[in-house]
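=== RUN LOG ===
request id: a7f3
mode: sequence -> structure
chains: 1
length: 328
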Amino acid sequence: MSVDVESTAAGRNRTAVDRSPSARVVALRPRVGRHTAAGPSPEVVALVADPAAPPAPGQTHPARHQREQGSTQALEPDGRPLVRELEDLVGRLHQHGPTPVLRARLTSLLSAWAAALVRLHRTPLTSLTPTADLPWVLDEPLPDWLGTLPAQAGPVWAVRAHPAIARALEDARSTWTTAQWIHGEPTGDDVAVTRVNGSVRAVLLGGSAQPDGTVLARENGAGCGDPRWDVATALDWVAIALGPVLDPGWELDPVATFLAEYRSLGGDATPTRAMAVARTVGTAIEWTAQLAVAQEPTDDELSWLSGLWTRPLELVGAARPGAARRMR
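=== RESULT ===
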């Protein structure tokens, strides 16, 4: 994984969202083979692991945000989950290659997702707006059971002990804002898309805000919070769910595309490095809880977890010399 970092503007107000053009940008890009050398990653939610083979009947994936049977929120009329759209797109890319039409389709899907975030973040706050839940990774100590994991699960001990990780979590906690409407967990699993007259529109499921400030559903801790967490969560999902199933030879960078579309639409809540570290730590713990606590993980799952636990260290430059500054 490499990290692109733009310099932080001097004198930034640490109590508010940084909206200056020189605000630091952190974009996570898994290295080729990082999570795919040992087989398909379990984070590839509803995407075909082998594009040449159709999905098995009843196939499920251990998605971090997968809902229980029967709890899926109703979609808009003719709405379709984003992961189904990406499943079809990935299959066509493997069948036909990165044609201009398919490249444009990927951009339109990511742009619609980004636009949904921008719309939500611009929803006016009222006296009825609830306060969003603080992400658990910023509100609770890291769980003790992490100390019982096998070494093959990755550098868990290093993440727990590294002072730069602790500083990043504290910085993300202390600079958390209640500036705008947020969703809380706007992963690709929580997005539905519709098409009207050829245009693509995305809708965030759960915690949708109404013009009067009320909430239709508040499944993910939606409300008044820090929009940078929403963007960090979306980028994190794109990096580890979509990125690994795209052939490196196609030269597609969905993380960069999402961020570019978000910014072109007027989105200005770019995550800081500390926010990105917190998001990657939370992701590693959530996946570890699913794959290595209540069951015996497979070798492929251990390899996947090892990659997830390396990401926070790479962000703080601790995984290897110069890791956080390397562009490729």
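=== NOTES ===
The longest strand covers residues 191-196.
The chain has a mean pLDDT of 75.
=== END ===
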